[in-house]
Write a structure and sequence with these properties.
Elements lengths: L1 E4 L1 H7 L8 E6 L18 E6 L10 E5 L4 E3 L10 E7 L4 E6 L2 E11 L4
Parallel strand pairs: 1-4, 1-6, 2-5, 3-8
Antiparallel strand pairs: 2-3, 4-5, 6-7, 7-8
């Protein structure tokens, strides 16, 4: 499995990758330290979370390769994804999306920065 960040997405996300930050693709299901609450609709919701390099990621045992480095995820969240995923940026609304070969998985991918906490 892999994730490709488009050039537009990479350019805007670079500011979060300071000090060797790690990237987490968090399935927002109410489980784990970065998920405030589960989504109450039938829609899937994901967040890109940027954490310090020494953050405890024991709940995120899946490692996905990407063109920005490894992306950590909850192992069971991989069931929602395709083999080749893409993170893109809508330049008009500055909104990130997560998609795969089967279409868009999350049209409004959230961004959370925990690198300074």
């Amino acid at each position: 499995m892999d994730i490709t960040f488009t050039d537009a997405a990479k350019d805007r996300l670079q500011k979060y990758l300071k000090n060797d930050a790690k990237i987490v693709l968090d399935f927002d299901d109410g489980v784990g330290p970065f998920s405030d609450e589960a989504n109450c609709t039938l829609a899937l919701s994901f967040n890109l979370v940027f954490v310090n390099k020494d953050a405890d990621l024991h709940e995120f045992g899946a490692k996905i390769s990407s063109n920005l480095g490894d992306v950590y995820a909850k192992p069971y969240s991989l069931d929602q994804m395709n083999e080749h995923m893409k993170v893109d940026l809508d330049p008009k609304y500055l909104r990130y999306s997560l998609s795969g070969q089967n279409g868009e998985l999350d049209p409004s991918l959230g961004i959370k920065d925990y690198t300074s906490k």
